[in-house]
Amino acid sequence: MMNTQPIPLPLLSMNYSFADSPVIDQVGVEERVARLQSRSIKKTAKIAGLKLALSMIDLTTLTGQDTPGKVRQLCAKAKCVHAEDPDLPQVAAICVFPSMVRVAKKELEGTKIHLASVATSFPNGQSNRKLKIAETRFVVAEGADEVDMVISRGKFLQGELAYVYDEIAAVKEACGTAHLKVILETGELATLDNVRRASDLAIKAGADFIKTSTGKIKPAATLPVTLVMMEAIRDYYYETGKRIGMKPAGGISNSKLALQYLVLVKEVVGGGWLHKDYFRFGASSLANDILMQLNKQSSGYYQSPDYFSKD
Asked: What are the DSSP E strand ranges found in 15-123?
């Protein structure tokens, strides 16, 4: 009788070399970023950009003090960022710890706001693969439609790239239909060459988004690092026609910097990525600064930071 059992596919890491990632010209990257930062943005474009940035935020709470009440308050802000201006766009997503996914899921029911959860022993990633996969399956079962995983930076830095690739691929499989954001923790990767190599690796292993940082390590997101990661996304798109998302996270707390990130996205990969499906900000304090700037554009003066919810 013919064997009808599916034949297991070989791990792609056995046949793929990551040595093909390009060498990064750090001076060239920094000079290009400096030019992009000098761009002048007029009032109409600034208002549109600020509203776009607001719609791209993943409102996040990832502290040991998180409680169901705090998560509910964050979800309320996600649904209506400022009661005085209900026409403002909602944020893209809420991001919480695994234990808070069920709470957030109930609060976000009936909205188009995505629910993300960190997983795989966030933020250090120092546990075994079996536990990481189990945690991933848990958060998806609880209701998360996005999973933010951390790579094993120690394995990456000691050259075990196949290990990191296979781990990402295994977590991606455990996500099922949920989207996978792969956190590189670029502040621990030391060089832009490593950032590019890790970006290529994560994309080819199945990432739907690549993300700079956990927000727990400094430096977190930077424009040069984001430029290098966006170039990896661009090159993969040219090769395959598939769009991969990008999420800078950590240290993006003011509107001016957020607009500079949007300029970078437009210049490197084009306007097709200027949508919450392909670009996110991992931030919470950024939302209030955007609200302050939008109020300034309409009224001519700044409101006190206390005028806006701090959740």
From this structure: 57-60, 93-96, 114-118
State the pLDDT at residue 10: 37
Q: What is the pLDDT of residue 8?
A: 38
Domain 23-32+41-58+114-299 has CATH 3.20.20.80: no
Q: Is 148 an annotated catalytic residue? A: yes
Domain ranges in the chain? 23-32+41-58+114-299
Name the helix (H) or strand (E) containing 283.
none
Place of tokens 């996978």: 180
Give the strands of the sheet with 114-118, arranged side by side. 245-247, 209-211, 179-183, 146-150, 114-118, 93-96, 57-60, 281-282
Does the annotation count 105 as an active-site position? no
pTM flag (> 0.70): yes
**Is 211 known to be catalytic?**
yes
Q: Of these residues, 145, 148, 208, 289, which one is catalytic?
A: 148
Q: How far apart are the first and last CA of the chain?
A: 63
116 touches 94 (CB < 8 A): yes
> Which are the contacts of 256, defined by CB distance < 8 A and separation ≥ 6?
none
